[in-house]
Amino acid sequence: MFFASDNAGPAHPSVMNRVIAANAAHQMPYGKDTIMDEVTARIREVFEAPDAAVYLVATGTAANVLALACYTQPWQTMFCSAVAHIEQDECNAPEFYASGAKLTLIPTDDKMTPDALEAAIATQTPGNVHGAQPGPVSITQVTERGTVHSLEELRALTAVAKAHGCPVHLDGARFANAQVALGCSAADMTWKSGVDVVSFGGTKNGCLGVEAVVFFDPAKAWEFELRRKRGAHLFSKHRYLSAQMAGYLENNAFLDIARTANANAMRLADGLRAAGAQFLHEPDANMIFARFPRAVHKKLHDAGARYYLWDGPLEGPADELVAARLVCDWSITTDQIDTFLSHF
Amino acid sequence: MFFASDNAGPAHPSVMNRVIAANAAHQMPYGKDTIMDEVTARIREVFEAPDAAVYLVATGTAANVLALACYTQPWQTMFCSAVAHIEQDECNAPEFYASGAKLTLIPTDDKMTPDALEAAIATQTPGNVHGAQPGPVSITQVTERGTVHSLEELRALTAVAKAHGCPVHLDGARFANAQVALGCSAADMTWKSGVDVVSFGGTKNGCLGVEAVVFFDPAKAWEFELRRKRGAHLFSKHRYLSAQMAGYLENNAFLDIARTANANAMRLADGLRAAGAQFLHEPDANMIFARFPRAVHKKLHDAGARYYLWDGPLEGPADELVAARLVCDWSITTDQIDTFLSHF
Amino acid sequence: MFFASDNAGPAHPSVMNRVIAANAAHQMPYGKDTIMDEVTARIREVFEAPDAAVYLVATGTAANVLALACYTQPWQTMFCSAVAHIEQDECNAPEFYASGAKLTLIPTDDKMTPDALEAAIATQTPGNVHGAQPGPVSITQVTERGTVHSLEELRALTAVAKAHGCPVHLDGARFANAQVALGCSAADMTWKSGVDVVSFGGTKNGCLGVEAVVFFDPAKAWEFELRRKRGAHLFSKHRYLSAQMAGYLENNAFLDIARTANANAMRLADGLRAAGAQFLHEPDANMIFARFPRAVHKKLHDAGARYYLWDGPLEGPADELVAARLVCDWSITTDQIDTFLSHF
Amino acid sequence: MFFASDNAGPAHPSVMNRVIAANAAHQMPYGKDTIMDEVTARIREVFEAPDAAVYLVATGTAANVLALACYTQPWQTMFCSAVAHIEQDECNAPEFYASGAKLTLIPTDDKMTPDALEAAIATQTPGNVHGAQPGPVSITQVTERGTVHSLEELRALTAVAKAHGCPVHLDGARFANAQVALGCSAADMTWKSGVDVVSFGGTKNGCLGVEAVVFFDPAKAWEFELRRKRGAHLFSKHRYLSAQMAGYLENNAFLDIARTANANAMRLADGLRAAGAQFLHEPDANMIFARFPRAVHKKLHDAGARYYLWDGPLEGPADELVAARLVCDWSITTDQIDTFLSHF
């Protein structure tokens, strides 16, 4: 009953098997491996973007900050939700990689609204040398609160960005979970909706540690390569990144894995709802924020269930509500979910 | 006949098997996995350093630059050989991670001499605010030219560093190859010889992509953790780094793998010597720099042998000497070596 | 009728005369001039801090960001008011000088409250490697809105900072204006109230361009010298900075100049109040934010009055209120103020 | 008898008088002062460059590093002489302002030769992601050793740079001294010889503290403004920089001042030569490196002469030669020079 994070489960066989298969013979290092050629072609196909520049790195933070750095001058500010991963969970890596640029936070506990984004950009004073200059907008999909922007919502945000000349980055650490939730194409959720560069996550969705950065404008390719190397993120035995991503994309495994994870979360959410739990955010993908009585939480904890308590201490009145974050990956079984629910 | 680099061969079974085994059940992310506990204990044992702080990253450049950054203020300069990897092959990553510090190059085509290091440090003017202040000394072992510092040589260099108050970093991308060449202990080659922090390489010696950074002074631990995270080098599914390193250290596999690689290189070197090749540097470990006639080089190339031509173009008089860099990893077979030599 | 800023008037004779006097004979460069000895002694006397480390730079931004950088690690965040100069008017210089650290903004349109500061620091998670670590707190005195923290208010803020182990910086671009407003000593407003380092402004209060950075803990001295040099802020002909500051401090000229500026502003504020103007912030020093009818504003503008319109466009209904920022320096005459007021 | 540096003497009356005159009435801050309009027009005239972008800063290091940063990506290296001010005397400011770029040193104790520059650039591997990429070339004129590149020498260096696509920066801390030494125009020594941006020094040649950065390609203008502000080098009371530069340029005062300084140095050099002193470098402008017996040095020192001992300790055999650096500014009198020489 491990619901703490989707970064704690095993890699999916479709991924692992390609890694094992890659461990034969010699391959050129530093991204010149033949598997990477397959990956590039496949990502261009998946994204319907024949000119896209495609690169692999091993961590989600690396994907985000390298992508953003290619669109951010040191005297600019990047716009993001106040709860964005790049703000809360990357220990100043965005500022480091962008040579000391700033983040401007859009006040929200989940999605940015277009109005709030507009207000944040509008308070900037481009051309005034005293203030930070407007830089890129970063949107997270699935959000840090488990919700998914509809294509309409995405486009409303990117329209605001574009109106101010701001490029758009999509933090897609849970890209596939969002895509299957929306039932749209990868292109729909990116360049067809105004996204310039995407962090296309693999790690949380069944890989060992790989993320693709996809630039729809290949003009950024060389700068990205230099930034990746300078950031110490260019793998010599790159084949093992390529192999993960190749297995992940093969036969749309990434969508199947995400579908399983989302279905797990929906089964859990349905059970929680039936048991009277309240949701802090309506779950759209594989992540649930729910309130239930402390007494239930203690029973779950004693039974070995693992998840983050979002709000409220372990000790206190038994009938008081606490809040929990529950994340499902593909490897959670329905049995585990049902056992979990049986404690309510 | 792939002699281009030791980063192009497959991972060793002792490493790969642990990665496969790690792909079961759930593990806490971000270095809190139980396999990392094993790794830390084992590295402390290997280095006879019960208090050492031990961390894993995925690339050799990350290990070097994060280790050095912990010992370098932005207004300092790091001392290294003019041919050091940190100077020639890391695209300004050391300067990036050290917030704009400088490298001072010791003129040499291979090892630094203590006199040359002394001269370089002595030209600095600590306490003079106009110049860069002296920072750490970085020594590469095995060197970029395939030679190995004796313990006496190492200690002569660290003595110079210590006399000036400069901490010492060892770039051990090929640490195990050097250790078996010297027949010494890991402790001998590090803290017993005046080394403060070591990049203990795994990738080039049979891993997929993992390096340990070992601080003999644990006071640097927390700073390293913050720098690693801020550099986007903290893996969420850290278990896959831990598993590689665990397999690498188990039963001293790292030494066995290096012994095989070095033996391969010695077989090749002996054959080359017998065939009349000249050596640019006397090979000590698993890397050879040799001169032989262009005609031989062309035959080898046509036969599918792969290695870097170090000096001299492909075309030219048949009897003119060209220089080649030949690197052996554990996976090169004696058959391949003998076939290679048969073209002389 | 120039009320646009206190950086637009001439230097005060007490300052200018020392600059002219300094232009004789030779002086050692880079802060080794004899006038600097006088300045250091005098600042220690003024601040009742015999061990203070004292340095001069030429701009307020340089003073702020060099002082803050000495207390900020790259993975930390600095806390300040959302309207602080370091946030709004320094084009990412704080982030640049602190090697990519972050700013955390306390929501307010003027002073931070201790509760809001506490809330901002409390949301940080020191020891959690994913988030920025808490760094220094920067307080502005006189605030950007023309108000002055009482000593009680200052101490309540620094108490919050100290409780979390955060060092405290005071942005005193208008230090003297605040000091005369409070009628306290320089020590009262700094180290006796928990301030660790102060940007002691000269430029806005009658100098040509000089600010002192005063560290009450001299342990930061050498780091500051290196950061100043590396930031290209160490003057070769430093005597001209020293001379300004010497004249500024002589016979407490800095307090007299500020007293004049504040008195000018009070005369203006009294007149505005009598004329029915509303204040956005109650003016405490030499800066006024007032609303009055657009018709009056147009008359003033046509009469040659200069100031920033804070809110509301030039064109619109004549009786609608606009907001203006009016700043007085020592050189504004009572005649100019009275002429200005005559247009109401 | 102050020959220690040309940054230790007083400002020239032509400069000082404009500063005093500027201290009247109000002026717009941050470079919007009317005096700056005059300066821009005059510099364009002096450099015969009607489109040049012109900016003022207060220190030579600021001029150099801001100019270079506009032409340097963080993954590039800047080429300069091993004895360049940007290498030896700026405490890593070039690396700081260029976000961690590197310097590649051309081995020389004075001028770079075109061959040595070619060799240094040719060892770079543009397009190879592992190494630093070639960036700008910085040439110092007058050199740090008191010699002046002829226009032919300058053009030979810039031709090498241009052949590799490297932009060219001229560190002209002693620009006027070089210009009068060559008897050429400012345009001859800059854009007509392939220079893209120049640090046009004022401080060492009779100003209080002002340098102009002149871009012959105005496309860099806005980036420079942002970098200057972010570096904390934009003066609020900018008029005092403008006034210095205005006085410096008026009636070609800068050339007259330099002519005096150079003539002083020539008188001193002639006397030294007559007295049997040897020159380490043939003096071309206002700086002399000469060897003479330690006994003479001691007599001079006891007589109050001040200069840097370049080589050799104060104590030792009386007839042993020591080396001294002797710098003349405009304010040295012929009497002082003759008194100095009388000790030989």
Reconstruct the topology from this structure.
4 copies of one chain form a homotetramer.
Chain A: H1 13-22, H2 34-46, E1 53-57, H3 60-69, E2 76-81, H4 85-88, H5 93-97, E3 102-106, H6 114-122, E4 133-140, H7 151-163, E5 168-172, H8 175-182, E6 197-201, E7 211-215, H9 221-230, H10 239-249, H11 253-274, E8 278-281, E9 287-293, H12 294-302, E10 308-311, E11 321-327, H13 334-341
Parallel strand pairs in A: 2-3, 2-4, 4-5, 5-6
Antiparallel strand pairs in A: 1-7, 6-7, 8-9, 9-11, 10-11
Helix pairs in contact in A: 1-10, 2-10, 6-7, 8-11, 11-13
The first-level CATH class of the largest domain in chain A is given as: Alpha Beta
Question: How do the helices and strands follow one another from N- to C-terminus of chain A?
Answer: HHEHEHHEHEHEHEEHHHEEHEEH
What is the assembly state of the chains in this entry?
homotetramer
Q: How many beta-strand elements of chain A?
A: 11
* Low-pLDDT residue spans of chain A: none
Question: What's the shape of chain A?
Answer: globular
Which sheet architecture does the biggest sheet of chain A show?
7 strands, mixed
Strand order of the largest sheet of chain A: 1-7-6-5-4-2-3
Quote the average pLDDT of chain A.
96
Name the chain pair whose interface involves the most residues.
C-D, 50 and 50 residues
CA radius of gyration of chain A is: 20 Å
Percent range of helical residues of chain A: 25-40%
- Could you give the distance between the termini of chain A? 14 Å
Query: DSSP helix count of chain A?
Result: 13
Look at the helices and sheets of chain A and give the structural class: alpha/beta
CATH architecture name of the largest domain in chain A: 3-Layer(aba) Sandwich
